[in-house]
Amino acid sequence: MAKEEFTVTPYEVKGRVDYVRLRELFGTQELDALLLERLRTMAGGELHPLLSRGIYYSHRDLGWTLDQYAKGNPFFLYSGRGPSGPLHTSHLVPFDLCRWLQEKFGVPMYIQITDDEKFWFRPHLTRAETRKWGMENLADILAVGFDPKNTHVFFDTRSIGAMYSLAVDVGKKIPYSTVKAVFGFPPSTNIGLVFYTALQTVPAFYPSWVSGRRTPCLIPCGIDQDPHFRVTRDIAEGLGYPKPALVHSQMLPGLLGERVMSTTGEQKDNALFLNDSPKEVERKLRKAFTGGRATVEEQRRLGATPEVCSVWAAWRSKFAKSEAEFTQITADCRSGALLCGDCKANLIDRVHGFLDDHAKRREQAMGWAESLIIERAPAGAGGSAPAP
Ligand code: SF4
Fold first, then answer.
1. Is the CB of residue 343 below 6 angstroms from any atom belonging to ligand 1?
2. pLDDT digits (tens, 9 = 90+) for 24-64
């Protein structure tokens, strides 16, 4: 563990993360009030709650990306998922923001399903399982509300025909020592994971590669994923592509009071999965860690502490429908007007409603998800170097 008493890599988050310090360590920029205001104006006067409530808090080159948009060179969005099991609500954080950006800016979305990576990374997973989870996860992601006419999917083992030529160019630019240093791979790491870095880079360059025009890329992701894209950014200009811009979120805490919503091993109760039954949702939320007091009398008198509460984190990141509602919940929690039992009951209702709606949208998305998978690059792709 680093002297900062926390460790954050794409494969591991340990300790109590100091997000300001992490931003300094990673060398990213603060997503400050000025830039948020600019985003609000360009989006027609609104900000997504994930932005206004400070869950996205850091970036690389977002200002440049907005400059390009204003000059008539719109960005595209890129995010992905390593399919190893069902999604939980915190997995939707990047996709919720992408959907909003797609709607407000009318830009294309590229989703990468990394069934290869999860097969290489998780010893117990079979190819059949990563493929199955890949399609299931894709339907959940599309159910967030992406525009199918403006959304494209790389499903790695199925899209390799479209990706491989560009991955070959990328692979030549990334030294093994970089991958080893950035990800901390031990000598026993399989070579699939080493090459995977090239495949994760492909979507960030693909639209430029296909069109021959330098097309800005914007990647919303958890800040733990920043090291992957630092490698991508380091080699971008050398291949003639713009460096992808990033906007980073904090990691959401788990329901059991863990600092991160990890669900490996015995920690399934740490998160709300999109396929949880209503009973499961209720059971998990009833036992969720809160910032409440030991007794009702104390809480009425002294109030509670929302910042440490996993239930408040759920309201903040997804379930409060308006700024007014979120502000009210926070104020009532602090003052003692709201008790944890009532707060949890309200959230249980809200989550049940969300999961019902989500299941319907997911079923519809299952019908057209296949049609979005890119299997071949268009004829002539990569034929000319991107022009500035
Ligand atoms: Fe958390 Fe709600 Fe209790 Fe406040 S009242 S500590 S937000 S459960």
1. yes
2. 999 999 999 999 999 999 999 999 999 999 999 999 999 99
What stretches of the chain show up as alpha helix (H) in DSSP? Answer: 19-26, 33-42, 49-52, 62-70, 93-105, 115-121, 127-142, 156-173, 176-183, 191-211, 226-239, 278-286, 296-302, 310-314, 323-335, 340-368
Question: Whole-prediction pTM value?
Answer: 0.93
Atom 4 of ligand 1, nearest CA residue: 333
Choose the residue to mutate in 286, 312, 316, 335 for probing ligand 1, maximizing ligand atoms within 8 Å of C-beta: 312
Which residue puts its alpha carbon closest to atom 8 of ligand 1? 340
Q: Identify the structural domains of the chain with CATH numbers, from first to last.
A: 11-251 (3.40.50.620), 267-366 (1.10.240.10)
Q: Could you tell me which residues are beta bridge partners of residue 245?
A: 218
- Read off the tokens for 286: 């009833």
Would you say the CB of residue 373 lies under 6 angstroms from ligand 1?
no
Answer whether 340 contacts ligand 1 (Cβ < 6 A): yes
Say yes or no: CB of residue 306 within 6 Å of ligand 1: yes
The continuous run of DSSP H or E covering 247 comes out as: strand 245-249
Half-sphere exposure of residue 372, counting CA atoms within 13 Å on the CB side? 26
